[in-house]
Amino acid sequence: MSFKVAILGVGGVGQVCASEVVKKGYLTQLVLADISTEAAEQFAEKLRDETTASITVCRVDASNKESVASILDEVDVLLHAGIPEFNYTVMQACIDTNTHYIDMASDSPDDLLKQLEWGDQFKQAGILGIMGLGCDPGFSNIAARYAADQLDTVKSITILDGDNSEVDYEGFCAYFSPQTAIQECLAKPNYWTAKDGLQYYETPFTNKDEFEFPDPIGWLDCYVVEHEEAATLGQSIGKGCEYVEFRYALHPDFVNTLKVLSYLGLDSKEPIQVGGVDVVPRDVVVTTMPKPAELAGKIHGYSCVGANVKGTKGGQNVELYVYTIANHDDIFEKTGFQATVWQTGVPPVVAVDMIAEGLLNETGCIPPEMIDPVLFLERLKARGMEWYVTKKTSPIFRMA
Q1: Within 10 Å of residue 167's Cβ, how many Cβ atoms?
Q2: CATH of domain 4-134+343-382
Q3: Are strands 4-8 and 77-80 parallel, antiparallel or unpaired?
Q4: pTM (2 decimals)?
């Protein structure tokens, strides 16, 4: 059996994907593709000592359909680990070459819904597209589905992302894609209601509330932030779900820095003239920030992502929090990666496992919660990404 995987974008998350996929015997060929190949070549040399699969490195421009398609000859699955703004170009290349497609994020909740509308084109090509399968979105969707499957009815779903770590870096930084972090945190936060569908607050950093994360993280201030989960979970979960939101625990210094960037217009993606040269303000900011992979070994603390699902079961109110938690130092010691990129890179490889095993053989475009949660979570644990469930119950009181 020949099974060939391509990874487009060989930054921190792409490297995690590559280091995980080579662990399985089904892999015969791996293509590492990026606009800059120097780091990818160095990483490939390391991986060649860990696998019998052949590994090639290619220079690819993700904004160019033909460039992406040029590496997809006989590739079974493409993992797009680059920035989400190129999703559509990469998707079209996969359709043209009949290659299964997985990405880890969309450019916005509305973009996710537009990506899912490509389902007929993917079906005609006989391929599967999974949109937003990282940690959050991704694991978070599947955790919500798992929790909902344990309940008779679902009232609300809150995705919660919290981190109590400190980093050995004096400047402004983000643990995942800086472009994505700036964009989603400064965008209008979204939520979903059964009555009105996808809705948006007018300003970022709204509806701050405290949530108690599992030990040793504890209580953190969480903000509603633009995210993909709320665009699909309410309708796909059903069971009477009334409300879905995503909450992100943000450090006050991070929030204040983003507010200053926004005030100065430095979060803009639109080019401006500086000394006769076109400059994108956000790109300037990102260039001054460390790459997430460069923070490996410098972050100390815990990262937790999960789905808090409230509903009923057998005449009781039930609240389930299905989550994964990782210590940055432990993950670095075991894998050489920081926990946030590791948590993002493992779930898409689990989907690759399931495709290779014939357990994901449908065609079309799906959000992560459409994957069988039990089969997925079993394989996630087997790859070392533990997950847990906390449960709270209370009686249902009815008015006389």
Answers
A1: 17
A2: 3.40.50.720
A3: parallel
A4: 0.93
